[in-house]
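sry for the spam today, last one i promise. struct tokens for design, 86 residues
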């Protein structure tokens, strides 16, 4: 058996708050490549959250890199002007 095969449930596996077993889970037909129905899939996965989080991380990293670059440029200018030793 290949490690790349993921076995999705044919019925929704969503369990409500405090539910301890699969008995009484939603049971509606699940959507393709998920183990949840269309009503519960975005409750579980929070639609778009991974992509939005990745874009935010990229913007944050770029801001840090720009700040670091500006800092190094300022230090170089101070060294050239003799304000600080190199």
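last one done:
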């Amino acid at each position: 058996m290949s490690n790349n095969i993921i076995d999705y449930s044919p019925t929704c596996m969503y369990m409500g708050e405090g539910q301890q077993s699969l008995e009484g889970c939603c049971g509606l037909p699940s959507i393709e490549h998920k183990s949840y129905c269309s009503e519960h899939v975005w409750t579980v996965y929070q639609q778009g959250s991974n992509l939005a989080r990745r874009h935010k991380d990229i913007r944050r990293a770029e801001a840090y890199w720009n700040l670091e670059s500006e800092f190094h440029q300022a230090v170089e200018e101070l060294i050239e002007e003799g304000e600080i030793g190199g």
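The CA atoms of residues 75 and 84 lie 8 Å apart. ok im logging off now
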